[in-house]
Amino acid sequence: MNNLVKVNSGERHNKDLVLNLFVLYVTPLCVYLQSMFFATTNIWAAAYISLLCGLMLTSRKFNFSVNKWDSLFFLFLLYACYASLRTEGGLLYFMQTFLIIFFVFGYTKYQISDLYRSLDILFVFGSICAVGCIIQELWNGFYTDIVAHLFKSEDVDVILRLEEEEMGNCGLMPQTGSAAECILNALYILLLKHNPRKKKVIWGSILFLGLLLTGKRAHLFMGMFALFLSFFVGFEGKRRTNKALASVITAVVLVGGLLLVAPFLPEDNTIAKVVNTFRHFDLADEDIMHGRALLFTEAILMGNSAPLIGHGWGSYKKTVDYHGLSTDAHNIYLQLYAEVGLIVLSIFVLAAVLVIINNIKTLKQLRRLYPENSQEVILAKLAFCFILFFYLYGLSGNGLYNIECLITLALGVSINKRLQQVVEAKTI
Fold it and tell me: What pLDDT digit, counting tens, does each position of 206-255 carry?
């Protein structure tokens, strides 16, 4: 009996360690490992992935399962794992995709309380990014000194150039999109977890301001839309109506306040720039859309020339010339059409539909089995926001090609798979 207790304790400790290290990677630690002054190659990220996989393999109860709901998702990830070897820097991409497969489908037997607590890592990291954006706007000299000490010289140049050339702030991240992803995750966790109202108001304002300062319109709009929809699938009756009404009133007050304040701010103020882009949004304006209309058209034309199998994974960025630069299509679905054709695109879309349906089904089942403020129901709502945002953001961004965004989707799917096990255990 004593030996059995020791074994189970070792298993529990190993699972907890892997879970927290994986969530730390989701934050995304990989961006820092490849961007801070001590990381000159991808070796650090590869070593971190190897450590995680090694810890997973040493677990005494490793379970690998794929059910009908996520079979297409698994199939697409297998293709991505294979295709990543055919791209530049493919070994690291392969290892990252392999880690996602390993984690989602083979390592989901966590304690619900551990999953719940591990999300605090995402909240803390997102809060740091939001505060970084605010410091960059209010105390730029101090911010510049911080960046100079934390990052390699070439990354310092990129971060500070982004502030000058774009409308957004980076929040101590090499890319504004990475900062926006982290802030949005933290906002979901703050609003959906059981927190005091005062904390939600104070930190919610900080996170929303930080997200606004990144200037990432797609993250703001798609992220808030995913949160709004979570009220409809996560609540019912009067509670759902009150939540939806409160979110609409809050949005109206925030937007109205920004529209009133913006004219009195200097023209070079980041908030004024962001608000003005919302007020004068025009699909035909290349400065507003960053050439997306052209990029979308190129992806469609490229796909039409080989509609079934496409031109190969990663081929879009290598062939499309956008004002002398190489870039993604800024639309996952169109880029997949151009690169891998209708066959793989269909698998991706069907997998997305099944993953979302399964998440909603699990959430509704948990709502009948547990109180509204239970950890199980809250985790299901968070998983819904993580998953839905990824597929919505795919209409305007490159989430599939940004590992920090893709691996957050993996976290949402793995949480849902664990909750499925809870439902099955309760209903047997």
Answer: 998 899 888 888 888 899 889 888 877 766 666 666 766 766 677 677 76
pLDDT tens across 383-396, in order?
A: 999 999 999 999 98
Rounded CA-CA distance 360/69 in Å is: 12
| Confidence (pLDDT) at 378 | 93
Find the helix packing angle between 332-369 and 292-304, rounded to 10°: 100
Closest CA to 391 of 381, 373, 405, 403: 405
Residue 351 main-chain phi, psi, to 5 deg: -60, -40
Residue 264 has a CB neighbour count (10 Å cut-off) of: 8
Q: Is the pLDDT of residue 285 over 60?
A: no
- 329 closest CA partner among 351, 297, 281: 297
Task: State how far the Cα of 129 lies from the Cα of 126, in Å rounded to an integer.
Answer: 5
* CA distances from residue 43 to 89, 196, 241, 245 in whole angstroms, order as listed: 11, 42, 50, 49
- Gyration radius (Cα) of the chain, Å: 22
Which amino acid appears at position 408 of this protein? Answer: T
Alpha carbon distance 114, 19 (integer Å)? 8
Please give the structure tokens belonging to residue 272: 């004024």
**Could you tell me which residues come within 8 angstroms of residue 219 by beta carbon, excluding any fewer than 6 positions away?**
177, 180, 181, 184, 211, 393, 397
C-alpha 85/C-alpha 97 separation (Å) is: 10
Confidence label for 66 from pLDDT (cuts 50, 70 and 90) = confident
- pLDDT over 80 at 423, yes or no: yes
The runs of H, that is alpha helices, within 308-331 are 315-319
The C-alpha atoms of residue 162 and residue 156 are separated, in whole angstroms, by: 10
Place of tokens 């879970």: 19
Residue with the two structure tokens 């591990």: 118
pLDDT score, position 187:
93
Distance of CA 343 to the CA centre of its chain: 25
DSSP bridge pairs for 325: 322
